[in-house]
Amino acid sequence: MDTTLEQPARARLIIAENQELPVPAILRYDSTDPLAVCVDFPPEVSLDGQGVTWTFARALLEEGLRGPAGGGDVHIWPCGRSATVVEFHSPYGLALLQFDTPALRSFLLRTYAVVGAGQEDLGQAVEQGLSALFGSV
């Protein structure tokens, strides 16, 4: 059975030293893509007025809760005991957001309750990836 988890999260967009803006976000996990997690942002906070979804490895989130992680478009690192910074890079620039660590940790644990670490059905994930890549070729 396919399961989707969604959890609202408090995020703060860091705009300058000691200046932040609250940003609504939804953390999302779908068991049909067991290796990934998503962060959804509503249209009112995007540059083009459309909702934005960032998808990255669930393992990256786990690693970033313990120490600096990431080497591509998403970087994650702890900031003290109660905050975690997520940095998103795009062709238009970067966004630096701070999340409450307990909320991220709770979400991550919920994802592992749905699909345990090492229990991911990679055959289905590979099939979906190939279908998306090649379409109906």
UniProtKB/TrEMBL annotation:
The keyword ATP-binding does not apply. It comes from the Bacteria. It is found in: Cell septum. GO terms for biological process: division septum assembly; sporulation resulting in formation of a cellular spore. The keyword Hydrolase does not apply. Transmembrane segments: none annotated. Keywords: Cell cycle, Cell division, Septation, Sporulation. This is SsgD protein. It comes from Streptomyces canus.
